[in-house]
Write the structure tokens for this entry.
Amino acid sequence: MTLLEVENVVKQFAEHRALDGVSLSVPENSVYGLLGPNGAGKTTLIRIINCITAPDSGEVRLNGKRMTAEDVRHIGYLPEERGLYKKMKIGEQALYLAQLRGMSKNDALKSLKYWFEKFEIQGWWDKKVEELSKGMAQKVQFITTILHDPKLLIFDEPFSGFDPVNADLLKREILELRDKGATIIFSTHNMSTVEDLCENISLVDKSKIVLQGNVAQIRASHATNTYMLQSTKTVDPAGFELIETVQKNGIFESRIKKHASDSNNALLEKLMSQTDILSFQEILPSMNDIFIQTVSTPHQL
Amino acid sequence: MSKINLIIKREYTTRVMKKSFILLTFLTPILMVGMIALIVFLGTIKDDKVKKIVVVDKTQLYKDVLKNNESYIFEFSDATVDELKNQNEKESEFTALLYITKDLAIDSTAAVMYSDKQVNMELKTYVSGLLNKYIEEQKLASYNIPHLKEMVEKSSTDIDLKTIKWGEDGKEKEASAELAIAIGMITAFIIYMFIVIYGAQVMSGVVQEKTNRIVEVMISSVKPFELMMGKIIGIAMVGLTQFLMWVILTVAILFGLSTAFSDNIDMGSVQKMQEMGQMGMQSPANSEIAADIQQFMTAVNGLDYVQLIVLFIIYFLGGYLLYASLFAAVGSAVDNETDTNQFTMPIMIPIIFAIYAGVFAAENPDGPLAFWCSMIPFTSPIVMMVRLPFDVPAWQLIVSISVLVLSFIGSTWIAGKIYRTGILMYGKKVTWKEMWKWLKY
């Protein structure tokens, strides 16, 4: 079921068209990735979904109905540039934001205590935001965003500024939130997180969507007919292409490219005649490769 | 707790807890009292160094007239002025040189005082006083009328014109124009100061929230208008708190000081009076001052404080709300604080004009300038405060306050519209035309 739909959104700034006919639909209870190089228009799109800016044309629908300012109250939004008061103590600030979102003081305190412990930042309660590093402030910001259990979460570049350990923590939290029923949209440059987290993506480049769909399908459709073979003997390229072979502990690992017309079984038959097969697996292109390939070549959707 | 209350509370507590606020709140009254005390103290210190005045008296008439006192010693010399001048250049011996060429009863300009530095007032009045008195006596004596001196002394009068105004209830009140001006100007100036200081705080607060993108997070949970009004009201309460603290602290300090020193002061002044009495000196000046003080105190008591304070708060809040909403609109329209200048100028001009209009209104509180400026909402909070101690007719107060209230409702409405659009707008150079367009969204 579709939770959020963006239809044909156009946004023009003075001399620059930030979004040019962008459409996408986000299924409920899934993680959706917005990818794209810097300046592609991701943040503008996110700001339009949050009703911070209005589109010049097109519309955003939530549950099939045109989104209103009232609907925005049920969105948890983590902006890229940190929206915290620099001079305020972290605990007070988190409490203030939670209360503004309609939580009672007691609920907010209880919930904050849980999250501060989970993120191991109990000692920060009385610190001021200006004393924190970017990544630290982002942890706090993340907590304030999800504290009131919004159904729809929108994160703009949530991984920037995080070290690998904390990025991993954040990934687990995002998946946990999805499992609890939330729908998550986030923008990122970090392609490995896309493979780990997203069911669907939209790749935005130069104000347009250039690639869209299910991550697994996208990767399959970009397949290059390349396979990884582990075998007991070396293989000779007969009826297929051999890219390279490396030997590891008496096992040979070969990268093989089959002819597009051959089926997998046809390739396997050719291999079986030469060697004992230990494993055989298709190498799908990483999202990183697809990203670079799509963005750096002239494209049409 | 409703959202706007939360916002007010945050704006209020974060500002009141700031070190700079606490420091300013407590130090200002101490500084004020300290400054007054310093002036009073410096005024009471006597220069205890005895100064020498050399007198070259060609007439030889004034040897007995120029009497030494604790500050000045007169020394008579037969040398010429030039000789003394040269001598003084080599080794500075005397403070001043008094040169009398003719009988002063005939030519009153015949006395000259030379000095390296400007002769101070005290010395000048002392010497001319002695000479005047002597010449006067000489002249009176020359009429050969018995007891003339006593008669003249008795006939000397100092008329003290009391000003009494008729209150509405028929009671007579003693009025003091000077006090009215002072109170009017002080309250007007406080309102001016608060509008400028706290209005600017509203503006920089809005700019800060905008540049930090805090507002993007906030906007999902509160309406822009709530955010703006919360900030304006919160800061107004900070201003009122500071003002009340100043009043309370100043009164407390003054009260404390006066109880601590009252014994000393009384003893000292009594002693002085006795000394003066013993020396046989008349002190008409003293009784005059005492009368002045008493008149001043009755005038102070004659003022209607309740009315004054209530109206002060009304005009303070009205003026502040009017201007603060405009400042908030400006803050929301720009991307950073340096861009605010072009928009604050048009807001500052009426405030500054109001202060000048207030000064003129003090001179002529019922004139057309004072009247119109106390009706126009942009100047009325300041100008009306100046006029207030001069008894403004009730209908004028009612009109002025109603206009002010309507204007600030209008201005917050307009500011709310500009704010709503401006606060989320980035990277656009804002013009007046642009802001006009936002109004009509």
Q: What stands out?
A: Chain B has 15 helices and six strands. Chain B has two domains: 51-143, 177-259+292-439.
